[in-house]
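Appendix C. Worked example: TIGR03086 family metal-binding protein
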Amino acid sequence: MTENSSSQTADRYRKIAAAFTERVERVPADGWDSPSPCEGWVARDIIRHIVGTTEFFLGAPAQGAPSVDEDPVGAWKSARDTILGALADPAIAGKEVESPAGTRTIEEMIAIFGVGDLLIHTWDLSRATGQDDTLDADEVNRLFTFMQPMDEMMRQGGAFGLRVEVPEDADPQTRLIAFTGRTP
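Step 2, the predicted output written as structure tokens:
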């Protein structure tokens, strides 16, 4: 990992996190129990998952983070700040960890899995709470290009449902969302 790649990952994460934060801050108090496009989840569960990925990436939960049940906005912001802090610290960002993709640095894990996960769940939260579901076009293209060769492998772990068929001329975001097993 180079400092440049870490800063690029931090920039990408920061951009997607800003869009996610906008959606999180707009969820009305009674919206946290709204059904999500993720089967069996409500809006609050999306936050719970994203906060949980912080622990997955770093091996420990965000310190002093509020409970997702009591303060989903605060829990998300604490997780976001923890990830950005890790990316800003070369000793943490460069630490090697075991992942589903083999041994990777924390920065690589966030670049490979964290940014994309946050992007897709921005769409989920937007849909669950009736907000604009438009995603960053560059990240949509990057993620879709990255995921396509792993189609079969992705579905084996149960993290993604079966691909939803969409017209050939569907826009890239619709194709990505459908590829992840969600109905656009």
